[in-house]
Amino acid sequence: MRRAVIAAVILAVLGAGGYIAWKQMFAAKSPRELYQIVPVTRGDLEDLVSATGTLQPREYVDVGAQVSGQLKKIHVEVGSVVTERDLLAEIDPTVFLANVDARRAGLRNQKATKLDREAQLVLAELQFKRQEALRAEGATSADAYQQAEAALKSSRAQIAALQAQIEQTESTLRADEANLNYAKIYAPMSGTVVSITARQGQTLNSNQSAPIILRIADLSTMTVQTQVSEADVNKLRQGMDVYFTTLGSSGQRWWGTLRKIEPTPTVTNNVVLYNALFDVPNANRALMTSMTAQVFFVATSVKDTLLLPVAAVQQGNRGPRAGREGMQQGPGTGRGAGADRASAGSVPGSRDGANARPSAAATAGAATAGATAAESTGQPSANADAPTRRPSRGPRRATIQVLTADGKIEERQIEVGVSNRVQIQVLSGLEEGEQVIAGVRQQATPARGASGNAMPPGAMPPGMPAGAPRGR
Questions:
Q1: Residue 212, class by beta-carbon neighbours within 10 Å (0-12 exposed, 13-18 middle, 19+ buried)?
Q2: Where is this region: Disordered (predicted)?
Q3: Closest CA to 369 of 330, 403, 341
Q4: Which residue in 203, 202, 259, 249 sits closest to 226, CA to CA?
């Protein structure tokens, strides 16, 4: 008798435990427990083309040496702010100064010689006039007259030759003086010394190549040199808005306007990239040369609009007829996708990174549904190409699943507009604050339909309210 009582108690405990476990496993769950629910929000949306770029000064000049010699003194250092005509460096002027002194001495000698020749010219003119007077009276010979005439012409020629030599010497002197001036290197523009490549005491040889001493740049305006892939370059246009962030201040945006797209690409390892340039003010000098910029070209932008996660729209478009009726370009007046679905609760897992990852079964179910739709319609599965396709911008229809105030799930057709890879604009069909299903939170236990086949994860028979117990 005692054993029978103990056995009965054990059986009762096991039965109660099994019942509780069965109830917890098969108890109906609310939509908020099963699905990721997101609200319709209001905000700004941008459709962007992203690229990487490098910051360079808009205007800069490499300052070099025009004469050869030893670099005697550098008067600036990297970071020095200079103005135009400031002295930057000096080359040893000893040789150039000696050349100038020699030219000046030679010039003085030539001018003195010219004075002597001019005095001789005056004498030659007087002698020639005397011979002319004597010849008129027949008091001189022809030979004396001819000698006086030749001496006059010779004096004039010598003076002309000396004048040419003086002009040549003056020209050479100007060149020597210029070389002497080139020994002092002045700033050709106002700006900041951003690099110095020569060393004090170094010998510069300007005959073989133009030696660069330093670089001056105007850092008040920076140019962002951006490399854009050939797949995205056709989306750019001159004058479009563009902004960028830097590694050190990712929370701050610098805005500019696309100035130029260079027609000749850069090809590296069969990757074709085009240079896109735009300028940005740098009054506070926060931007520096060679900084890396994460650049975003604003292809489309809308302000103060209703927004949904892209996953919510993708979620609403999954199902047996998603390939045909999930999203329709243009306004469209065809029958809503919700009228043809077996159940409003048929939702596979979300791919939104902000939401919980669905179970493997849910993911497999979604992939199978997408593949079936692709085979039946001849169109690529929306589930397959959503992560890689470019965002659409035109108004179009989409079907989503809305959680109503009474806890039911209803399908609704809305009109959407601009989108990016994260959010999509809602043009009509939703109000701010409404709750929309964006993905599966927890995998429900598969139920079996009337045909005896297992139903897809999360599916409910037609007409059954969300959260109702599932059974055979």
A1: middle
A2: 317-398, 444-472
A3: 341
A4: 259
Q: At residue 268, does pLDDT exceed 60? A: yes
Rounded CA separation 57/331 (Å): 49
Tens digit of pLDDT for each residue in 131-162? 999 999 988 899 999 999 999 999 999 999 99
Cβ proximity of 301 and 47 under 8 Å: yes
**Which of 270, 264, 205, 259 lies closest to 237 in space, CA to CA?**
259
Amino acid (one-letter) located at 418: V
Helices 94-137 and 142-182: crossing angle, nearest 10°?
160
DSSP one-letter code for 320: T
Give 358-385 pLDDT, tens digit per residue.
333 333 333 333 333 333 333 333 333 3
Only one residue has tokens 């892209």, namely 310
221 forms bridges with which residues in the sheet?
A: 281
Long-range contact set of residues 139-142: C-beta below 8 Å, sequence gap at least 24:
none
Q: Which pLDDT band, with edges at 50, 70 and 90, does 449 fall under?
A: very low
Q: What distance in Å separates the CA atoms of residue 243 and residue 257, rounded to the nearest whole number?
A: 8
> 64-113 pLDDT, tens per residue?
999 999 999 999 999 999 999 999 999 999 999 999 999 999 999 999 99
Structural domains for the chain: 93-182 (1.10.287)
User: Are the beta carbons of 235 and 113 closer than 8 angstroms?
Assistant: no
Q: How far is CA 310 from CA 48, 338, 352, 361, in A?
A: 15, 19, 8, 22
Closest by CA position to 429, among listed 400, 391, 466, 392? 400
